């Protein structure tokens, strides 16, 4: 075995886990400094190296710096956010209305990552039964970009409080192209130490040991080292 086929060095592993642990969804801390082209290309390349069903690579990337387009998307957000707020009552509604849930205008670059549902023709290897695997693949591209961005000191915020049809119209997407992720990108004043929704009292991270089952849904793990490590080991 070549040494490069073994696990990474400790420093490299630490770097990867740090990016995973310290990645944040950013909406309140954007700076207006532009992202240099070579850095943006590194992020796009990270996304493009994601796994995809049958190597379909169903993604395209729409880089949006036009204020006019961003303002149009912001209007869609405002309307959908009003509707979303009506799902809550009392204190929860007040809290919801105080949450900042997008940074469309404050971030210098918006990026829409789409899924071309026809790419690769009618028979994509691995997508015969589960048609959504193309969408899953695009989500992995989003995550690659999100982690690479963290390592570059760039914040990413995913805005999904949007009407997909109106978004597709605004971005002039063809019928077969679905806008999976609308992302805001930019350098930040800080990365919060924990999710903003947790800091604001909306929802907390669930304990991992409650989410790990053994051999079937709802079955506890056998008593043993895995169970002990799950209780003891922090990320
Ligand atoms: C598919 C999807 C869609 C959205 C999000 C995420 C994902 C994965 N998140 C971000 C989300 O709130 C955030 O990831 C969690 O709160 C956890 O925080 P960190 O990402 O760990 O900072 C998000 N945040 C927000 O402010 N407005 C939004 O519309 C969305 N939409």
CATH-assigned homologous superfamily of the largest domain: NADH Oxidase
Cα distance, first to last residue?
A: 30 Å
Query: What's the total helix number?
Result: 8
* Order of strands, widest sheet: 1-2-4-3
Order of helices and strands: HHEHHEHEHEHH
- Taken from the alpha-carbon principal axes, the silhouette is globular
Q: Count every beta strand, where a strand is a DSSP E run of 2 or more residues.
A: 4
Low-confidence spans: none
CATH topology of the largest domain: NADH Oxidase
Percentage beta strand? 5-15%
User: Can you give the helix content as a percent range?
Assistant: 25-40%
The secondary-structure class comes to: alpha+beta
Rg measurement, Å: 20 Å
* Average residue-wise pLDDT: 96
Largest sheet: 4 strands, antiparallel
Bound molecules: ligand FNR
For this structure, what is the CATH class of the largest domain? Alpha Beta
Quaternary: single chain
Tally of domains: 2
Protein name: 5,6-dimethylbenzimidazole synthase
Organism: Litchfieldella rifensis
EC number: 1.13.11.79
Keywords: Flavoprotein, FMN, Oxidoreductase
């Amino acid at each position: 075995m070549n040494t490069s086929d073994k696990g990474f060095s400790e420093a490299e592993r630490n770097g990867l886990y740090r990016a995973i642990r310290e990645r944040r969804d950013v909406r309140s801390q954007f700076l207006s400094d532009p992202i240099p082209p070579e850095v943006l290309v590194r992020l796009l390349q990270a996304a493009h190296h994601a796994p995809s069903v049958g190597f379909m690579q169903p993604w395209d990337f729409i880089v949006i710096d036009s204020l006019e387009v961003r303002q149009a998307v912001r209007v869609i957000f405002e309307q959908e956010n009003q509707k979303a707020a009506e799902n809550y009552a009392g204190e929860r509604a007040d809290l919801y209305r105080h949450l900042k849930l997008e940074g469309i205008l404050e971030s210098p670059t918006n990026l829409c990552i789409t899924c071309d549902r026809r790419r690769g023709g009618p028979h994509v290897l691995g997508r015969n039964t589960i048609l959504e695997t193309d969408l899953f693949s695009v989500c992995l591209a989003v995550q690659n970009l999100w982690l690479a961005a963290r390592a570059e000191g760039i914040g990413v915020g995913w805005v999904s409080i949007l009407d997909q049809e109106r978004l597709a119209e605004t971005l002039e997407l063809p019928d077969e192209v679905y806008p999976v992720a609308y992302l805001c990108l930019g350098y930040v004043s800080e990365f919060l130490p924990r999710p903003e929704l947790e800091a604001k009292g909306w929802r907390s991270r669930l304990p991992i040991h409650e989410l790990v089952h053994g051999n079937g849904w709802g079955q506890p793990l056998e008593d043993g080292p895995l169970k002990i490590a799950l209780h003891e080991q922090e990320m």
